[in-house]
Amino acid sequence: MTHKTDDILSRRKFLIASGAAGLTGLAGCTENNSNSESEPTEASGGSGDSEDSGSGSESEGLSGDVNIAGSSTVFPLATAMAERFQKEHSEVNINIQSTGSGGGFANYFCAGQTDFNNASRPIKGEEKDQCSNNDVTPVELKVATDALTVIVNNDNDFIGEGLTVEQLKTIFSAEEKPTMWSDVNSEWPEEEIEIFGPTDASGTYDYFIEAIIGEEGPGHRQDYSATEQDRTIIQGVKGSKFAIGYMGFAYYSENTDAVQAVAVDNGDGYVEPSLDTALSGDYTPLSRPLFTYPAKESLAKDHVAEFARYWMESSTSKEIVADEVGYVPLSEDEKQEMLDKLNSAIEEAN
Fold it and tell me: Low complexity bias: where (predicted)?
């Protein structure tokens, strides 16, 4: 993937590093340095203590906190949107925590402690129930499309064109749990497979099970190096010739010199992960939608509603979503559908 300027590349690397740190107060990324390490504040149905001076859909004089938890995959996109929004509204403080999709739902959003939860898979039924029990109403908004990426070490010279879906299932499922590469293919080295991946709190983990192992299957093997930090997955695979891992495409795109992406064959030939193959639908079954979920109750606050609108209005931006972050933007029709859903929720909230 190409980048327009060195500044954009450097900034994107900062975003990824911030994601590894887990929490960022995005005001610290702009001229306003307040709350650079603040935790999400507790409030019913979302958070943010400051009242807005604007009203309705007006965006002048906005102030207050916006607290976001959830997916590490969506983190760089949320960061890019929040940073731009804060340049226009310096009195709005946006704090983002990278917790994994499930960790964000269970521990923050559905507990009423954050205004948004980012997710790399749809909200689950039990999460909806938890939200309902705490008077939190999630509003599902698609924000981009990702190409979930399997990576191996740069010195891996034996897998050839790539891996089939069946081979990935063999490697990662709890049923077979091969210990050697030769257990997957007798022509491959008799060397131990070192596996790195996200934790079970991650939407990426959930999606990998759905797409590769099957939701009714044996489940994901647990004898692997699990982390919520994508940077750790990159480092682990980079450090061993016989390692394998997976993550969102944006993190791989920042590290194309450190590791190599694996082409995947779903029965119609090997396809490499890219923005083009995700958009065309050729990269199956690992292309996937990404979401953010504002709490409808929080949308009654002008600064939260206006940030949500800003994100949706910018969701078709090739410059932000594709060139800067590394995902496929929404189409104009998708954007309008999300805006209609959002505006209806804002109207109901008020």
Answer: 25-38, 53-65
Residues 279 and 300 in one domain: no
Residue closest to 206 by CA, chosen among 100, 50, 326: 100
Query: 184 by DSSP, 3-state: which?
Result: helix
Same domain, 157 and 196: yes
Shared domain check, 191 and 244: yes
Structure confidence at residue 339 (pLDDT)? 98
109 phi/psi in degrees, rounded to 5: -65, -55
- The crossing angle, in degrees rounded to 10, of helices 332-349 and 302-313 is 170
Q: What is the side-by-side strand order in the sheet with 64-70?
A: 23-25, 92-97, 64-70, 116-119, 287-294, 141-147
Share of the chain above pLDDT 90, in %: 81
Domain that residue 310 falls in: 64-139+295-349
Domain end marker among 242, 270, 287:
287
| CA gap 280, 220 in Å, rounded | 28
Q: How far apart are the first and last CA of the chain?
A: 43
Last residue of a domain, one of 234, 267, 287: 287
Determine the pLDDT at residue 60: 64
Which is it for strands 141-147 and 149-153: parallel, antiparallel or unpaired? unpaired
* Domain CATH for 227: 3.40.190.10
Per-residue pLDDT tens for 172-220? 999 999 999 999 999 999 999 999 999 999 999 999 999 999 988 899 9
pTM summary value: 0.81
* Same-domain pairing of 178 and 244: yes
User: What six digits make up the tokens of 264?
Assistant: 């995947």
Q: Could you give the 3-state DSSP secondary structure of residue 96?
A: strand
Q: Can you give 225-282 as a three-state secondary structure string?
A: EECCCHHHHHHHHHCCCCEEEEECHHHHHCCCCCEEECCEECCCCEECCCHHHHHHCC
What are 108-152's pLDDT values in tens digits?
999 999 999 999 999 999 999 999 999 999 999 999 999 999 999
